[in-house]
Write a structure and sequence with these properties.
single chain; 236 residues; alpha/beta; Rossmann fold; 7-stranded parallel sheet; 3-stranded antiparallel sheet; binds fructose -6-phosphate
Length: 236
């Protein structure tokens, strides 16, 4: 594991964007696993700048996102599809038809999970998976549990996740209680993993995840078993 500590959010964003840019430059047809949330916003901004400057070309890239809230359509401004369209895809030259987010409105989320895993498999797996980390150690929406779940699956969001994500909604009550998330199989089979964490409040969970026991109670701790993980952490 490479553990990079930086001084500011701006530095974190630059480092993460550079790692993703390097991946795309070396392999233009990369499959990128992408995340939402506040942490990657700066990274996505930098990638858009690089693309605008002609330094990175996303024309042949495919993306697969980690997760989506249950019941939110892509045109809902709280959906993760909307987030990705507006914070990254519209600002780079990626082919929107090659950007994938699980369908949180699928009637049968179990079937949707199977379809999503099949899709990732048919793409040849993920070359670089970008991850944030929740205060409870979740990656994607893989919440603390008795077991690590392999497949893309429906989840009940942890009360602490609902609390943390309420900042994006008008009220806590509006935060969906369920979501669909990529499971540990597609994440752990990614060739490279880049986890970004920002802020003093993430320090404790980052320490527990990467330097403590591997347990499904701290989902990110499974990453200790991955052969190519880079963590970029800023205490800002
Ligand atoms: C979002 C996701 C989540 C976030 C995590 C951290 O697609 O998968 O695991 O990465 O909740 O969110 P922020 O960056 O808002 O602290």
């Amino acid at each position: 594991m490479k553990f990079i500590t930086v001084k500011s959010y701006d530095e974190l964003s630059k480092k993460a964007a550079n790692i993703i840019a390097a991946q795309v430059i070396l392999k233009p047809c990369s499959v990128l696993g992408l995340a939402t949330g506040s942490t990657p916003l700066g990274t996505y901004k930098k990638l858009a700048e690089y693309n605008k400057a002609g330094d990175v070309d996303f024309a042949d890239v495919t993306s697969v996102n980690l997760d989506e809230y249950q019941g939110l359509k892509g045109d809902n401004d709280q959906s993760y599809r909307y987030f990705m369209d507006n914070n990254l895809f519209k600002n780079i030259n990626i082919d929107i038809n090659k950007t994938f987010v699980p369908d949180g409105c699928a009637v049968d989320l179990a079937k949707e999970g199977q379809r999503y895993d099949e899709l990732i498999k048919n793409l040849g797996g993920i070359d670089l998976q970008l991850l944030g980390i929740g205060l409870d150690g979740h990656i994607g929406f893989n919440e603390p549990d008795e077991v690590f779940t392999k497949e893309t699956h429906e989840v009940e969001l942890d009360p602490s996740t609902i609390e943390a994500n309420a900042r994006f909604f008008a009220s806590k009550d509006e935060v969906p209680k369920k979501a669909i998330t990529m499971g540990m199989m597609s994440i752990m089979q990614a060739k490279k993993i880049l986890l970004i964490a920002n802020g003093k409040n993430k320090k404790d969970i980052v320490e527990k995840s990467f330097f403590g026991p591997i347990t499904p109670q701290i989902p990110a701790s499974i990453l200790q078993l991955h052969p190519d993980v880079t963590v970029v952490f800023s205490e800002e």
